[in-house]
Amino acid sequence: MARIVKRGKGYQIRVSDGYTSNGKQNIRTKTWTPKAGMTENQINKELTKQSVLFEQQCHGLSESANIKFETFAKQWFKEYAEPKLRVRTVDRYKQYTARTYAAIGSMRLDKITPCHIQSFINNLQEPGVNKKAEADEKPKGLSPGTVRNYLSFISTIFDYAVRMNMLKDNPCSRVSLPPRNYKQRDCYTLEEAQKFLKFMQFEPLMYQVFFTLAIYGGLRKGELLGLEWKDIDFDSNIISICRTSLYSKSKGGSFTDTTKTQSSQRSLKLPTGIFDLLRRYKKSNSRSNALKWVTGGLIRTGCL
Known about the structure:
Structural class: alpha+beta
Distance between the termini: 65 Å
Strand order of the largest sheet: 1-2-3
Shape: elongated
Number of helices: 10
């Protein structure tokens, strides 16, 4: 229920829309001044209308958006990102915080407009922004893909604010992005792959196993690093992909995680020759407990 207080020639309409992140009640206010010549009945009628409209406007905002973007982003990392998102995703988002906080971190969440975000996105594309460019290269901005990742990071935070009933909509939805650069993938031909595997015969057995599985199985690096002996069925010549092994500085090194998606968990039937290679590798690592590495993976990061 709105509260109306007389203030000089006007009226202050006060509406409580819940509590802030600090547990304090948040009061939103609006001042309305009647036009000259309005009768008391007209003033009361219009004041009632204005208070209802203002209360409807504030309805659903259970927590104040009167909070700086950087403060809320850090809250988002703690409350949502770190418990729910994959470790590597959180690490990637944290790489975007420095530029983002410098641009809009000090602004109130409810005062950030599409124009502010668009200006930041445009700035990321300006020559010289990319500090990783070679010294002899022409100054350039960030790649379109990286720029899109920045917007995705900001948008995800605003989406969370909307779900928390702090904002009505996400300003990122009206921001324009640079066109994508689709690069053709440079893949080995059949002849090149055969030549590569032929040369691999002169390399240590660990590398032979790793790259043979990569070529024949089409496995991601993390999936290869996450393989354990129990995933290998020598009788049926089947390898099961059940997990990944990844690296994260925030985790202090390598860690085991689920596959990228549920559908990534799969079983592959591969040629007999690959399992002959695996038997040789298994024999050379017979000291490993329960037929697997102590760290939990068949092949570790040292392969690359």
